[in-house]
Amino acid sequence: MLTVFDLLLIAIALIFMLTGFARRWIFWVNSMGDSLVYDWKGLATYLLLHKKIMKRRAAGMAHLFLFWAFIVFMLVMVLAQFDFILPSFPGKMLSMLLDMIGLALLISIGFFINRYIRKKSNKEKTIPNRVLIPSLIIFCIVITGFLAEGARLSILNQQFSWGSPVGWVASLMMPKSPLLMQLMIRAHFFLVLIFIASMPFTFMRHVPASALNILYRSRGQMGGLSAAPGGKKGAGTIADFSWKQLLDAEACVSCGRCVENCPAAIAGKPLSPEKILQKILGQMENGPKKDLLCSDKIISSDEIWSCTTCMACVEHCPVYTDPVDKIIDLRRHETMCTGSLPSEARPMIRNLELFGDTHGKGAAYKTDWLQENEVNVLSKNHLQTDVLLWIGCSGAFHPRYTEVLRSMVRILDHAEVEFAILGKEELCCGDQARRLGQENLFSTLAKKNIDLMTQYDFKKIVTLCPHCLHSLKHEYSGLGGKFNVIHASELVITLINEDKIKFKYPQQHLLTIHDPCYLGRVNKIYQPMRQIGKAVEGLKIKELERSHENGFCCGAGGGQMWLHDSIGRHINHIRAEEIIDSGADMVATACPYCLTMLDDGISAAELEEPVKVVDIIEMVASSIGE
Q1: In terms of CB atoms within 10 Å, which of 43, 371, 473, 492 comes out highest?
Q2: Selection from 429, 477, 422 nearest residue 455 by Cα
Q3: What are the pLDDT digits (tens) for 194-212?
Q4: Contact 59, 260 (CB under 8 A)
Q5: What is the pTM of this model?
Q6: Which whole-number Å values give the CA distances from 428 to 434, 449, 464, 469, in the listed order?
Q7: CB 243 within 8 A of CB 28
């Protein structure tokens, strides 16, 4: 039974814990507002199954055992303070359960201590105290519990007890000392209090912080950006971040999954999504709240400009943090407030401002890609069509991708699809401007395109570029432009399934598929390319090791197409090596950036028989033979 003094100690520990969390969280809690969107059912399901954590089987199982073992252990500790008397058999069953839970705790905490030792030995040769101390406290809590039980059984001269197997083993090494038993019981009790009181100041703060982050996690489209609230031009200091962005930093558990899957980090560039969050957290904890984040002392410019916004870090984060939206806000501040846009990207931004396209060609050359093709153009005399074919900057001006666009026109004509284009009036969707932090320029381009498209009557927009798809479908809606937008591969497989596309020529290739980040991971469109590959006679498909949601970036997203890649390895070279190692003789993709980057990467390998790089649309067009 607990004494009055014990109750006082428990109250002090709880006060320490609550005060600690209040002091840590007051900075962002005050700005939460009233209209919060939360999901208790989702949180309960997450805690019960650990589904996202279980993507890493070993770590997931260890965390699952640790979490539930500790919950049950603490619950039994509380109930044990009341005068419950159980019959012999149920009592022994409960005792054995506690022994098994204790063993699960020891194994799990041992796994994590070992993992952090190995992780830090590869980097800094030390383990942060905020990680090591709570792990050791939990370890000692379990050990003292077993020793207390062992001392009790030793005093009772207990023979083997199936109800307490671990305690019985401990009793073999324990003297018959009531004093030692009491010391172990008190040590066990005090360690639990120390653990509770220290939670806000150690790694264990992630328990409530991660739960809150899961409860309030974004339900919006992955990778969907919106304008900064209150007219802010990005984030110069931590005071400029939203409360949810700051909660992300609190919730980060430094598990390293984001770094392990980040193409920039894999290529040896300065970016570490984990460190971005930890640096923001460090500024929340220790630094003046008005210090600029983008500085050599906190977050370097090389870090924020290395990001491809591929969303791999978001996909793999077990507690739903989003490092990318912080990076974009930091870029916004750098470009719109300090004018620190990298010099090599400035000509492209200037082209968007003057000509409305990334290549600086202008409206006069917008339809040159047509050559001899005749395509309907929406105008005052042609206001309606079934399909609006979105051309995009690459489709209109990039020599390689104009071929893909002409292939798409052939397919639509072959399938007798009624379609039209915007012609010279179409402007860039603005994706690259937004990812580079030029929010105002994105808004200008988007509003002009929205005003233009709302003049016409069409059922759907079809685009070949996943970046255009994402902007038109998910980000224009924030500016009033709500359109039905699909990717070209989705339309093509529908036409194939409806028997409107007739294949004439087989293709004898071992095909592998590169999933564009903004088609696959971001918009979850994986199957159309694979279904098209299966529909073409003669093709055999071999998946890359990193595919689907684990797909590897080509290196061009997030404005990287226009930035110099001078640090570490080229991301597209790494992907090209993976494609070559697969043994495939053809790789298909469905993105103008990916097509260019994979072409360059495979060319750089200087093979006698290089892997052929195609857009999935070209492959279909060559098979219909028209």
Answers
A1: 492
A2: 422
A3: 999 999 988 888 889 999 9
A4: no
A5: 0.89
A6: 11, 8, 14, 12
A7: yes
